[in-house]
Specification:
Layout lengths: L3 H10 L4 H9 L24 E2 L5 E2 L1 H9 L21 E2 L6 H18 L1
Antiparallel strand pairs: 1-2, 1-3
């Protein structure tokens, strides 16, 4: 039997790690099944998937454009329709800076703050 007390206890016993939260919040459709082990687009196996369809599957922009040019206006994984003129429904993911760039930026902020003290 499900009660509020048992659900609270089970929540308290769970380990809320970042991987648990990522898997439970985003599920398998947000990236894991749209990339191979190297993080490449499943269509061309070359580029990073930087365009997210309304169904939450992501592929590289070039492959999405080729799909549209061939009048195959549906997601290759789940077959959900991609509107022909619906670019506003597509999300583009910009390239993130490298870890070293972020680290250098953060160090420069700390150094600037220390100079002012």
């Amino acid at each position: 039997m499900f009660t509020v007390d048992t659900s609270i206890n089970s929540m308290q016993n769970k380990s809320f790690t970042s991987s648990y939260l990522k898997n439970s919040l985003f599920g398998p459709s947000c990236g894991s099944e749209t990339t191979n082990e190297d993080g490449e687009c499943l269509i061309c196996l070359d580029r990073n998937p930087n365009t997210v369809l309304p169904c939450s599957h992501a592929f590289c922009e070039i492959c999405i454009d080729r799909i549209k040019e061939c009048n195959k206006n549906f997601c290759p994984l789940c077959r959900e329709e991609i509107k022909k003129d619906g670019n506003e429904d597509l999300w583009s993911i910009p390239d993130l800076p490298e870890y070293s760039e972020i680290q250098n930026y953060m160090l420069s902020i700390v150094n600037d703050t220390n100079k002012d003290d």
